[in-house]
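Attaching the record inline, Q. Sequence:
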Amino acid sequence: MSKSEKRWVNFLLRWVMLMSVMAWTASGVAQEAANRAELPSPWTPNDSLNDSVRELRDQVRELQAAIAGMRSDWQQARAETAELRRELDEVRGGAPRNAQLRDAVAKSKISNSEAVAVSLQNGLQSAVPEDQLPEGQKEDQKEDQRVDRKKGEHAANLEEEYQLLSGRVDDQYQTKVESASKYRLRLSGIVLMNLVSNQGVVDSIDLPTLAYARPAGDSGGSFGATLRQSEIGFEAFGPAVAGAKTRADLQLDLSGGFPPVPNGIDSGLVRLRTATMRMDWTNTSIVVGQDAIFFSPNSPTSFASLAVPALSSAGNLWAWVPQIRVEHRVTLGEESSLIFQGGILDPVSGEAPNSSSYRLAGPGEASRQPAYGTRIAWTRNVFGQPLRLGVGGFYSRQDYGFSRTVDGWAGMTDIELPLSHQFSLSGKLYRGRALGGLYGGIGRSILFSGDPASANTQVQALNSVGGWAQLKYRPASKWEFNAAFGMDNPYANDLRYFPYPQSYGDATLARNQGSFANVIYRPRSDLLFSAEFRHLTTYTITNGGNSASHLNLMMGVLF
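Structure, as predicted:
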């Protein structure tokens, strides 16, 4: 039998004992009244009455002791429940607001139990007739009754608050998904509707990253709607292994392309985003699977760009890449900590696959070694938010055949800086080479002097520099405003190294800039509305810059 089951059994036994004593007390009082009615008139009941009152007081004291024990067990059970929920919150990565909510529920439950116990004690004391109590105890009883009324009103208010908070906590801790194993499985996701309108020519009307010149005969704009950025996720919590908590996470969306059928643009294909398995010790974690690149973790806030993170190819290095990494956390004090991360990754280089059925070796895989990444970050709490500063590095070798190898690398820094309780600044800077696999260099790693299949063709690695910055304003918990700007700038010397360069992307792209402003409104935790305006400017080495504007209106339901 578990501790919680034993505690509830003890609670029931004490409750039965309490009811029995109350019944026995009532029977004794009734019997005493009957005996007094049968006694002759010369008999004086003062001695017997005092004995009865004394006996009742002893019984009340015993009941008070039993209630105190019940209250102690109740408080202990509630405290353990709060602790278990706190641990669940740590495992699930819950927000600080949820933790405060659960603490409030726990306090409300304990306060309710105390109020009920006091009310029960006063009720037992009032079972003795008032005219049979000593004068001093009568005044005490009146004062207790006044206090009891106030506590009763307070308990009613607490009960109402408890019902509200308990409902919210239950919403956060629903576990209705059944799995084949005995371990818990959680389902989450978002159903997202995007209405988009473009002025200018872009590479993708619902997820624009580049602006192009307007061709002859083009209308100069577009309008559409899509739900392909909707997501679904599964999180499984496994057993403890070697002292580590284990869990796995799988995230999918509908942005894997379009089937070649009529109106296929409205039938997005399922796509793998991330799939990770974790082992978490107190200060160390091992992560295996496909995940975001840990050495460049943050991205701008936008619900208009879930399938492709905002400012992609405009200063935001990102990718979902198979990897194995180790993380170690060092606590520097109550408010600050360090995290060390390092691992190996699939050596992606940015090219589209040559086959839809077979995986052929790309330049990264042909190098016969993985890519490497590392990061160190310092975190401190400021204004109730994390102030985080991180620096990272990346290396990957690429082989293009005929002994044409390129060393890709990057150095980067990321920052999250709270300016006040409502304002915060975040951003990222990088400098690197051959970063097409991480959407650097406007999606290109190298340039060719001619036909890539020819042994006489030369290869030039593309150097680039870029980054982004975002200002966030949260005047209230339901409202959020964001403004961001980013830029990716390949080196002009590399772009002009060959007279007629070739690439698996557009070899003439010289610089790409993106900016946006959005507002996000969440009337409930599971409902959001958002509007975003984005402006893109893409420069080429031949005809200058091209601009486009993008308006996106969104509604989403989270589950």
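The CA atoms of residues 209 and 312 lie 6 Å apart. The chain has six helices and 21 strands.

More tomorrow.
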